[in-house]
Design brief:
The chain is mainly alpha-helical. It has one domain: de novo design (two linked rop proteins) (Up-down Bundle), CATH 1.20.1440.60. Helices cover about 75% and strands about 0% of the residues. The chain contains 4 helices and no strands. The longest helix is centred in the middle third of the chain and has 28 residues. It starts with 11 loop residues before the first helix and ends in a 6-residue tail after the last helix.
Length: about 130
Amino acid sequence: MDNKEIQKPFDLKKRCYFFSVQLVEFVKTTKYERIYFSMFDQLLRCGTSVGANVVEGGGGSSVKDVINFYHIALKSANETKYWLCLIRDSLETELEITNKLIQEADELSKIIASSLIKMKKNIGVIKN
């Protein structure tokens, strides 16, 4: 993975996509023993699920459908933070890269949560 700062796209779908690419690169370049395979497998599954659910939500047939996909994306982003922290604390990884991935997962969580709140306000689920 390249350590250079990459301009983060404003578009949430693109940002999630680039995050998925960064996760794939992280897993591809990290050396680990077989015992840790399931942690990296879970990381890839939930980390790439964030963007997949945001994209799927964008094609939702109703606002409630979009909200449901964003809820799943939020859960996946939070789970991604969990696996990244566990990997960081139980393996020798490049801390700078791991911490940047954790930070990006956290920022995506906050953006998705904010989007959910706005959507819920728009349909009257949450009162102003």
